[in-house]
Amino acid sequence: MSALLVALRKDVLLQWRGRVQIVAILAFGAAALLLFSFAIGPDSLALRRHAAGFLWIALLLASTLSLAESFEREMEEQALEGVRLLPASARALYYGKVIANWAQLALLGAGLVPVMVVLYDAGTLRVVSLLGVILLGTAGLSAPGTLYAAMTAQARGRQTLLPLLLFPLVVPVLLAAVKATSLLILGDPMDQLRPWVTLIVAFDLLHWSLGGLLFGRLLEDR
Amino acid sequence: MPTLCRHLLGEGPGSASPDVIRVAEARPIAVAATGLSRRYGRRWALTNIGFEIPRGVLAMVTGRNGSGKSTLLRILATAIRADQGTVRILGYDVRGDRERVRERTALLDHHTHLYEPLTALENLAVVARFLGRDPGREALLARLDEVGLADRGDDCVHTFSAGMRQRLALARVLHQEAQLVLLDEPYGHLDPPGFLLVDRLLQRLQGQGTTVLMATHLLHRGRALCDRGLVLEAGRLVFAGVTADMPDPVEAGGAGLEEGA
Q1: pLDDT > 90: percent of chain A
Q2: Among A78, A83, A86, whose Cβ lies nearest the Cβ of B111?
Q3: Global confidence as pTM
């Protein structure tokens, strides 16, 4: 079994054991969507217009909890150091964690869509495309998010530090994901979806590559 | 009895001649450290340490709390880097050949390196899979049986007491089947049967030709089991040689060590 599959299997198992936490994070995201809807009021047109933005902000907020949690278990007894010393490839450990976090964030995103539809009256017939955008967008949150979660895992005030570092970095993917989701909900008469999706893919490729290169340095630089 | 050569040279980090206390012996060398220094912030945890440990030897390192024992073991295991000096483990440089060193080394640290949400068996299976070995239940249960945890294999680590975690951490280290085993306080948190268990495991490792370096405060136990001893005091090496020649702890830089159990 390749090192990546071993790492992924370990991370999925850890996530499964912490599934109660995932449900709590989903509830947190749904609560955020509910509160945002109060800010707009009963104007259904305005609600529909803002639905995509609020969905991604709720997902972003929930992602910081989820990403931080994924390294909490690695740091409790310095388990990550333990596997690194076996030795396990830093790249395999990184991509295992990124893929597991990606799957979790994508599930969170998919779980928040029905909440958005109900609260914001923001349905779409292009469900597959919407799920595709969520998959690509959460991939863009997962790669840099995992790197920064590892970086801040042992820092004091990590709950503040992670969003402080992550939010400015993911602005491009967040912007593109909001635009793409919005086009799917409100309609796309000018066929603008493709360039936004291309931007997300470019961001994903860049950060998935960079993260793999930097993670080893992060683990060893002590 | 090997010839004991003692050279106490050098005054601090960066000085030309590090403290080198060496046991001259014809056996191949498992650990060779020269001019080893490490600092945390402005405080030097290790200062110009130099020593050699022959292969297949059971060695102990002792000294007061904060004398640098754990730092030394963590440098040898490549968990942290030395700021100065060189270390060769089984012929490989810890900086240049880090992965090769890791393939041949196992560390029992103060942190157990265990995943708390996973069961004892799953923790060992993770190690086995990363090492490309068979994670079969029977093999893993046999390993747990060695440390007296065969009946707790399916329980999550977060339900374990500190002593049980220590036993599982020992099983994890044994499961690596490394050529150099570094044990930081292996008797920590253990009950009297646990002490005997560690004694037996150490003797077995020695019988298999594994080199062991163990940090411990339990001098009498260490002396009885180990061939070689190192004494650290405030980050400096004040003795290295055969344990039979190990000075009284008070003479060895005022370490003031006593048998704890």
Answers
A1: 87
A2: A78
A3: 0.89
